[in-house]
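Morning!

This is the sequence you dropped in the shared folder:
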Amino acid sequence: MANEPSANTRTLSGPARWLLLALAGVCILLGVIGIVLPVMPTVPFLLVAAWAASRSSPRLHRWLHTHPRFGHLLLDWEEFGVVPRSGKWIATVMMSASAATLLMVAPQKWMLAAIGLVAAMAALLYWLWRRPEHRPPTI
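The structure's back. Tokens below.
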């Protein structure tokens, strides 16, 4: 039973599964790059990788969920929408630095678009800070 493909993988065509598997692989690679490169996010890429793997490769999906470094974070997100406070602070600092840089270097003719991007970042941060920080207590 553990080796059976999930319902999602059975309904996908071969090319669709391979495309999702490739997406998962690219996102894992970008997430690893994000670990060492401070301007590159890690978590969003790993979330996309987990999503793509859940539809294309039960084995890769299981590996992501059992990974000792980030497996519990993925499970907390998928099950309860949990974002740890440290992740919220890192996202806030990085987006704030990105917004400030964008507003300083954007040409005048692109300023309206830059302000729109900063507003989108603010909305995303508002949403992010409303996410729970811990799993709900079990009874």
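Headline: The radius of gyration is 18 Å.

More detail when I'm at my desk.
O.
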